[in-house]
Amino acid sequence: MQAILFYLTAVVAILSAFFVMKCRNPINSALNLVTTFLCLAVFYVMLESPFMAAVQIMVYAGAIMVLIIFVIMLLNLGLTVKTRYTHGLAAGGILSVMVLFVANYFTRAGEATGTGGSVTSELIASYGHTELIGRAMFVDFLLPFEIASILLLVAIVGAVVLSKRKV
Amino acid sequence: MITVNHYMLLSAILFAIGTFGVLTRKNAIVIFMCIEVMLNSVNLTFIALSRHVGNMDGQIFVFFVMTVAAAEAAVGLALMIAFFRNRNSIDVDDFNMLKW
After folding, report:
1. Which regions in chain A score pLDDT beneath 50?
2. Is residue A107 less than 8 Å (CB to CB) from chain B?
3. B57-B62-B68-B72 Cα dihedral, nearest 10 degrees
4. What is the three-class DSSP state of B88?
5. Which of A10, A61, A143, B24 has minimal Cβ neighbours within 10 Å of its Cβ?
6. CB contact under 8 A, B53 and A115
């Protein structure tokens, strides 16, 4: 049952990621990207991480995609003109296939070791995933969390300054 | 039975598709979306390995990747709007002001 769900979602994710790359209209690419994000949220649920799935849908499929679609519509981008570009296409194809082969090689080279950590399925079921995330974030990773808030502040200021016509 | 290797292969495929898009497309916003696909494939690897190892650290990493992606989206799209205002296009072939 889980295998069927995995393969169905994987096929949808790969196809929609392919069409993100393939579609000529940027709006179609954006909608396919939303489908990819939703498929990844399904994978996160299958991996017993429901909080990350919720954050994936709210932040990626919600906030970031709204921003991208807003900019596409603001700039009124139509169909892109197809120019002759075969050598670049071939080089990009070769490089991405090489990336795929290297990743495939290292994945199949052996079993992943280091299993048997403290966070098991029973622990997640008894405490809840959100509580475990919150404990890890606000106890072990408090300093990176504060740095992330400063990063977001800098991003807000940068976006406002960049999109102002005259500073 | 779905093992961690299945997830790693899936995210390798997604990453390769994203790489191909970044290298071959000319529209800056589509390149940006392909970068998001690559970031998401890495997130999938992080969460799959975090569950496999039995540790929460990978999922915190995903949280920070999402933060950086949100900041990148805000600044990158503001840059594209500023560029579009100057050149009336967001084709990456027109991004050549720094070329000598």
Report:
1. none
2. yes
3. 160
4. coil
5. A143
6. yes
